[in-house]
UniProtKB/TrEMBL annotation:
GO molecular function: N-acetylmuramoyl-L-alanine amidase activity
Annotated localization: Periplasm
InterPro entries, alphabetized: AMIN_dom, MurNAc-LAA_cat, N-acetylmuramoyl_amidase_3
Protein name: N-acetylmuramoyl-L-alanine amidase AmiC
Primary subcellular site in the record, as a coarse category: periplasm
Length: 445
């Protein structure tokens, strides 16, 4: 449903409500306004999200106040309900942005929510249409004025590493690799000459992308295991494995239980100057006996099988379930898809997928023996070899149990690490940031 349709529907429902006023006894009218069915909060360093789920689209007005900092949201035509009063209980004491929340009946037709803030925020407030399993949602995202940047976090990590390694004489001559901008800045600063990094020692940056998160749980097993939780656990273990290897460094697209839009996952890989991108998921199917891992690469010309096509459609729904303001979505990635470099990247993606699948097959028999292709939004990166791993079928009770076990998670993480290493040893070019740094040092380019 478009925004215009949504607005029209809201208008019509108001008109209906008005008509009801003319003849219904007063005590029945209270049942007509939007009913709040759930409230949720997803605190994270990057941004905190509060979701109000209702039986109808919530008409709202929002404004910021200073001294002290507050965000006020008025819900029109909403009577304060117990579930809404309980909103305060959903706010974690260590929420980075929200200190407290108060809910009250401001006027007979307006419920007012006041968020007392810990720091200045840039709110993004938007409505989402119903999508299984949710009804209408009003999403309140609180971003810091200075956005958190996972790429900046990577740099901080590398800096920390440099400080640790400076105690070791051999390694002290090897400054950690930095993105090209920083290298270029240093090259143009005459007071701070930097030695050229020995290239064979620069790590490859592997971006690990745990699927789903926050409002979007992903697939759910029969015993309640959520895809978003197990894929994050495996991604964290894999990150540790890559970080322990001096030749690789891993960056996670999300480090907690919050939602990141598909396009933003791809953008993060680009900003981190990723050499490789591995999206991590767990599959689900109606038949509980279906089992095994699969690895996918991008195809924009149709899927390699009906199942692959179906899966890509399901995974691409993540933005609708997880909640993204449509206007905020960038078509940048779709536009660059036509870039010629994609042909080379696709070959590398397939090689990477084969290497990872071969290692996963050593953990347990794969779902299919070959790499499959489909049009996954998260793999639309024109110049970073990208694959999507379905670790196992969470809908299979045996695999659901395994996915929760630390030992099995470790085996899967190790398989991803070995697969990536196998690919890097056979096919990889020099790490990307080094190529960019070399280009920026060359005055002719
Ligand atoms: Zn998934």
């Amino acid at each position: 449903m478009s925004r215009v349709q949504a607005a029209r529907r809201a208008f019509l429902s108001r008109a209906t409500l008005l008509a009801a006023f003319t003849w219904l006894p007063t005590r029945l009218i209270a049942a007509s306004p939007p009913r709040i069915v759930a409230v949720r909060a997803w605190p994270a360093e990057e941004y905190t999200r509060v979701t109000l789920e209702a039986s109808a689209a919530l008409e709202h007005e929002a404004f910021l106040l200073e001294n002290p900092l507050r965000l006020v949201i008025d819900l029109k035509g909403v009577v304060v309900q117990t579930i809404l009063r309980a909103l305060a209980e959903h706010i974690a004491p260590d929420d980075p942005y929200i200190a407290a929340v108060r809910v009250g009946q401001f006027t007979p037709e307006t419920t007012r929510i006041v968020f007392d803030l810990k720091q200045a925020v840039v709110p993004q407030i938007f409505l989402l249409d119903p999508i299984d399993p949710y009804q209408y949602r009003l999403v309140i995202d609180l971003y810091p004025e200075k956005p958190q940047d996972p790429v900046a976090r990577l740099l901080a990590e590398l800096d920390k590493r440099q400080r640790t390694e400076s105690d070791t004489p051999v390694l002290s001559e090897t400054p950690p690799r930095r993105p090209a901008e920083t290298q270029a800045n240093r090259a143009t600063n005459p007071r701070k000459p930097q030695p050229k990094p020995p290239e064979q020692d620069a790590p490859y940056v592997i971006v690990l992308d745990p699927g789903h998160g926050g409002e979007d749980p992903g697939a759910i097993g029969r015993h309640g295991t959520r895809e978003k939780d197990v894929v994050l656990a495996v991604a964290r273990r894999a990150k540790k494995r890559f970080d322990d290897d001096p030749k690789t460094r891993a960056v996670l697209t999300r480090s907690g239980d919050y939602f990141i839009a598909l396009g933003e996952r791809v953008n993060r890989a680009r900003r981190a100057q990723a050499d490789l991108f591995v999206s991590i998921h767990a599959d689900a199917f109606v038949r509980p006996d279906v089992a095994g891992s699969s690895v996918y690469a991008l195809s924009d010309r149709g899927a390699s099988s009906t199942a692959a096509k179906w899966l890509a459609q399901k995974e691409n729904q993540s933005d609708l379930i997880g909640g993204v303001q449509l206007a905020a979505r960038s078509d940048h990635v779709a536009a660059t898809l036509l870039d010629l470099s994609i042909t080379a990247t696709r070959t590398d993606s397939l090689r990477l997928a084969q290497a990872v699948l071969a290692e996963l097959a050593r953990v347990s028999p794969p779902h299919r023996p070959e790499v499959e292709t489909a049009n996954f939004a998260v793999l639309r990166n024109p110049d970073v070899p990208s694959v999507l791993v379905e670790l196992a079928f969470i809908s299979n009770p045996t695999e659901e149990r395994r996915l929760k076990s630390a030992d099995y998670q470790e085996q899967l993480a190790e398989a991803i690490y070995r697969g990536v290493k196998r690919y890097l040893e056979r096919h990889a070019p020099r790490p990307r940031a080094l190529m960019l740094a070399a280009k920026s040092r060359d005055p002719a380019s």
